[in-house]
């Protein structure tokens, strides 16, 4: 039972239905939410959404990688990667449990 | 390092959209995250191109151990949410296109 994927279109439609703005403005506001989060993460800040989870930026140091095809070793430069830690409430919800207080 | 919270996100949206009432801004933010969470609870995938994709991963039941007593306990199977950042966001967070990946491909 491969359920249908949720995309921007349906989320914008949900905003349209809930708030009563135009479809265009609903889509623009969804974009504004994602952009505000992206900008904060780009600045290296974490984004903590209560009852959902935390998006955080982690610094990774230099390490030696390998081209899996040729076996040639190449240094992987230090980088910042994004990770997501789901909240207890979200994990509980996905498992059909009552959300912890 | 400072951070952004749900209320900080709402404050930014409200400031950028002075024609919206605060309860509407709150409803917008709630609708977005509830929408994602609801889809995941139904086992659906959420794809927001450029930002990232949320999916659920199944964890099989296993025999775990209480690290303090060493006693084995049955851990039931469960599903956990997972987020994979999109290419665009990944590159923005890292301050540009990933140079190391390019280096590996070039080698």
From TrEMBL, chain A:
Entry annotated with the keyword DNA repair: no
Keyword Chloroplast: no
GO molecular function: DNA binding; structural constituent of chromatin
GO cellular component: cytosol
Binding partners and assembly: Heterodimer of an alpha and a beta chain.
Pfam family, one: Bac_DNA_binding
Similarity comment: Belongs to the bacterial histone-like protein family.
Key words, A-Z: DNA recombination, DNA-binding, Transcription, Transcription regulation, Translation regulation
Protein's job: This protein is one of the two subunits of integration host factor, a specific DNA-binding protein that functions in genetic recombination as well as in transcriptional and translational control.
Top-rank taxon: Bacteria
UniProt cross-references to InterPro entries, sorted A to Z: Hist_DNA-bd, IHF-like_DNA-bd_dom_sf, IHF_alpha
Any one Gene Ontology BP term: regulation of DNA-templated transcription
Name assigned to this protein: Integration host factor subunit alpha
Gene3D superfamilies, A to Z: IHF-like DNA-binding proteins
From TrEMBL, chain B:
Domain of life: Bacteria
GO BP annotations listed: DNA recombination; regulation of DNA-templated transcription; regulation of translation
Gene Ontology molecular functions: DNA binding; structural constituent of chromatin
Gene Ontology cellular component list: chromosome; cytosol
Xref: PANTHER family: DNA-BINDING PROTEIN HU, INTEGRATION HOST FACTOR SUBUNIT BETA
Signal peptide region: none
CDD domains, per database record: IHF_B (cd13836)
SMART domains: BHL (SM00411)
Role according to the record: This protein is one of the two subunits of integration host factor, a specific DNA-binding protein that functions in genetic recombination as well as in transcriptional and translational control.
Name this polypeptide is given: Integration host factor subunit beta
Keywords per UniProt: DNA recombination, DNA-binding, Transcription, Transcription regulation, Translation regulation
Keyword Hydrolase appears in the UniProt entry: no
PROSITE patterns: HISTONE_LIKE
Assembly with partners or alone: Heterodimer of an alpha and a beta chain.
Family: Belongs to the bacterial histone-like protein family.
Iron-sulfur among keywords: no
Pfam families: Bac_DNA_binding
């Amino acid at each position: 039972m491969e359920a249908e994927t949720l995309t921007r279109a349906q989320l914008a439609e949900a905003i349209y239905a809930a708030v009563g703005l135009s479809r265009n403005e609903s889509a623009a506001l969804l974009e504004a939410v994602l952009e505000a989060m992206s900008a904060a993460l780009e600045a290296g800040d974490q984004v903590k959404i209560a009852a959902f989870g935390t998006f955080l930026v982690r610094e990774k140091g230099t390490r030696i990688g390998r081209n899996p095809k040729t076996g040639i070793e190449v240094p992987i430069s230090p980088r910042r990667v994004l990770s997501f830690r789901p909240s207890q409430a979200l994990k509980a919800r996905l498992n059909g449990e009552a959300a912890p207080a | 390092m400072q951070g952004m919270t749900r209320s900080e996100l709402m404050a930014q949206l409200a400031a950028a959209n002075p024609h919206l009432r605060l309860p509407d801004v709150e409803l917008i933010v709630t609708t977005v995250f509830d929408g994602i969470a609801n889809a995941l609870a139904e086992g659906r995938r959420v794809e927001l191109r450029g930002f990232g994709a949320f999916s659920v991963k199944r964890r099989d039941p296993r025999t775990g151990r209480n690290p303090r007593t060493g006693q084995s306990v049955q851990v039931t199977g469960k599903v956990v949410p997972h987020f994979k950042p999109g290419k665009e966001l990944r590159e923005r967070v890292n301050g540009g296109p990933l140079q190391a990946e390019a280096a590996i491909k070039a080698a």
